[in-house]
Design goal:
- By secondary structure, this protein is of the alpha+beta class.
- The chain has 22 helices and 23 strands.
- The strands form 5 sheets. Strands 1, 2, 3, 4, 5 and 6 form a 6-stranded antiparallel beta sheet that branches. Strands 8-7-11-10-9 form a 5-stranded antiparallel beta sheet, with helices on both faces.
- α3 packs antiparallel against α4, α19 runs antiparallel to α20 and α19 runs antiparallel to α21.
- The longest helix has 45 residues.
- The protein is rod-shaped.
- The protein starts with a helix and ends with a strand.
Amino acid sequence: MMNLSQPLLEVNVFIPHEHYYLWNPELLGLHIVSDAVIVLAYYSMPLTLFYIVRKRRDLPFPWVFLLFSAFIVACGTAHLMEIWTLWHPTYWLTGAIKLITAVISLTTAIALVQIIPKALALPSPAQLDAANQALQAESTERQHMNLALQASEARLAGILEIAEDAIISIAANQQITLFNQGAERIFGYTAAEAIGQPLDLLLPNQLASIHRQHVVDFSQTAGVSRKMGDRREIFGRRKDGTEFPAEASISKLQLGDEVIFTAFLRDITERKQAELAMSRLAAIVESSGDAIIGKSLEGMITSWNRGAERLFGYTAAEVIDRPVAQLFPPNHADELAQVLEQIKQGEFVQSYETVRVRKDGQHVDIAATISPIKDATGRVIGAAKIARDITERKQAENQLRDLSNRLMLALKSGAIGIWEWNVTTNSLTWDNRMYEFYGTTPDQFTHAYDAWTSRLHPDDRPFVEAAIHQALDGEKDYEPEFRVIHPDGTVHYLKAYARVERNPAGIPHRMIGINYDITELKQTAAQIEASLKEKEVLLKEIHHRVKNNLGVVDGLLQMQARRSHNPEVIETLKESHNRIASIALVHEKLYSSDDLAKINIAHYIADLTAHLFDSYNIHANQIKLVSHISDISLAIDTAIPCGLIINELVSNALKYAFSNRQAGEIQVMLDEQPDQSLCLIVRDNGVGLPEDFDPKQATTLGLSLIQGLVKQLRGTWAIHGQSGTTVTITFPRGQS
């Protein structure tokens, strides 16, 4: 076989370029143009490949494109060197470039062989189209999901913002990350003011540490949420510092290593106030003195307070779920159906009076008010009744009715007229009797204040109007007597009584009064007064004549004494003279007094003792008289015995107490005791009584007279004779 490699490797067999091209211009030009075009094409293709790789970073095997680009550039450079060597024989350079091209070509070929399995595994255009369509469908579905998610997020955001409850999220460091509008309304902070702040911002100072620890404890539990009501109520603090009760639920969300807590908080201030109001209302209902009963529309008792127990005698256990009809008397059976029908219509049964039956069978008068009970929709579901025991009021009304009837009879029989004056409108209201008193009729009377005053007697009008003003000012009661002139000119006397009514401010707005005709009474009184004056003159004349007659008797006794020479007879006549003088002195006092029924005892005793001292010719420097008489007035039937007793005691003291005209003292005292009795004491400091003196055994006329007079006064007396003589007499005052 011919060795082909030998001539290829022998240098001597190479043909120079000038022989190859034969310096044929057409051939040379063909090679130059062809190589130049190839160079341009080779150099442009890498640029396109670079552009594609740069724009399509998702292309598989991008390094293959780079190898191809290097291979094409190397090939283009080899063709460029073919043109270069036509004028410059740098064959070593051309060979080196061709060697580089060969290396790049070989590397590219090897790489292509290696990626053929991967290239074959690449999807076909149909598969790519199907995948693309699937991706488009998935993309469309994802867009729909994104839209739904966005809508859901928008709805959630809207719900968060419009929620009445506060929704607050906090991070693990307990700083606020979410603060909705409900939280803004409840706490008073804006979201901008609250977000980023610690949770303590919303908690009372005294509870902040407790709530912080609660969040820490909850973060360490396995649970993810706690609902409202699962824990005790908490308290929040508003921006203005006020605290309020709240109910809260809390949840936690684990996002990787981060824990987010979300609290749902509800302000329960109104609920707590409602609960407090309900508890107060329940306490009021339970402690009410009235019976408060709840019943269904079927007439079954549903609630029963203590007032109902007291009123009807049943306990709640005895009547709950039992018909209320058991409280109705047999003759009131239809009343329940009527009341329930009104309640079903939503009507209130205003206060009405009826009768019910107690547990013990007794009937009780009650005043009841019934109102419908409605649910949240306004539907009537029952009735509430308030009943009050009015038995005593009914009895009082019956008594008042009887009293009113009796009063009307009394007014008619007593000829009493009733009137009313409205101070504000200045109008008078009269009953028929008033028109009779003033001699007029309703059609002739204008019912004005001036019309009434015009009928008053001109002399009485000023003080009657002054009495009205004093009553309106509250200075004194209105109760004047006055005269009125009838149209026929006759004068009538009226007596008035009135009461002033005032408004809450104390301003008088009405007077209510009565008048009654006292004309006959005045006439009778005038007649009686005239008669009394006549009798007074007559009585004074009688006293005067009695005094004069006693003076005549006294004069006869004195004449007889002057004619007698017997000392005992003279003394007896003198004693009789003094006794008659004491009686005459009483009549003299009454005659000279303005009061014919009684005399002033102090003046009487002073005159009586002075007469006795004169009668026995006793001078004041010899025997001293000491008197202590209270300012007391006594009737004649008491004054005369008292005067006679004093006459006897003072006379005895003057005659027997001071022998040989020795000096001494006589005391006369008359005082009123706490029990309104009178105590008369006559005392002297003379010789006293004998040691064997016994007043019960005494037979003298003076002592007998004293005992009789004390008995006449219904009194008691005692006598003591040591260091002088003291006589004490106690007797009732009698009529003064």
